[in-house]
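Retry 2 of 3 after timeout on previous attempt. Resubmitting structure tokens to design endpoint.
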């Protein structure tokens, strides 16, 4: 919530089950670990907070961004949490001890979305800089940049969300330009 709180709702009857204060600033993004034991919350105060989902107890706070956290996603193998921020950086965090594994100067402007491919060792990021980037999930190296400047008929404004369509293995992007684009990504990059 904008007031820095988190609310847990019943999916059966949509009643409020529990609410608690996370921060004095806006909570912007949430991610749930693959094993559904951890929840990561990122906010306007630049901090990522890790909670246990069993009792909603605070496990730790991760500080590594200089501007608000705008995207979070746990890796499918459960080893990493990847965070993106308005500082244009991607941070890769070890889940085993919550240490910073790697910092990547990924984009020119805010990183608004991170999406792991459901079955291949890649993830994509999308940014206010109007680019989509494909990264190796094992080596965290840049594999491909999709942008107008690279010759693609791409978004002309900020790219806000991306998602993988799993049956056709396409990447879907949406932008402030009011367009939805569907990308056929070859993985021999």
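Retry 2 succeeded. Sequence:
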């Amino acid at each position: 919530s904008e007031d820095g709180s988190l609310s847990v709702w019943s999916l059966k009857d949509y009643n409020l089950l529990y609410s608690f204060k996370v921060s004095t600033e806006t909570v912007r993004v949430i991610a749930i670990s693959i094993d559904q034991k951890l929840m990561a919350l990122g906010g306007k105060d630049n901090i990522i907070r890790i909670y246990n989902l069993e009792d909603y107890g605070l496990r730790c706070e991760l500080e590594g961004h200089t501007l608000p956290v705008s995207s979070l996603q746990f890796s499918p193998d459960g080893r990493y949490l990847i965070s993106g921020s308005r500082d244009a950086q991607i941070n890769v965090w070890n889940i085993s001890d919550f240490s910073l594994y790697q910092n990547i100067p990924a984009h020119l402007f805010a990183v608004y979305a991170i999406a792991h491919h459901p079955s291949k060792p890649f993830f994509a990021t999308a940014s206010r800089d109007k680019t989509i980037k494909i990264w190796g999930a094992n080596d965290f190296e840049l594999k491909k940049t999709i942008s107008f400047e690279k010759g693609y008929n791409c978004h002309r404004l900020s790219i806000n969300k991306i998602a993988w369509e799993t049956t056709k293995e396409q990447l879907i992007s949406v932008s402030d330009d009011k367009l939805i684009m569907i990308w056929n990504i070859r993985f021999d990059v």
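Attempt log closed. The radius of gyration is 17 Å.
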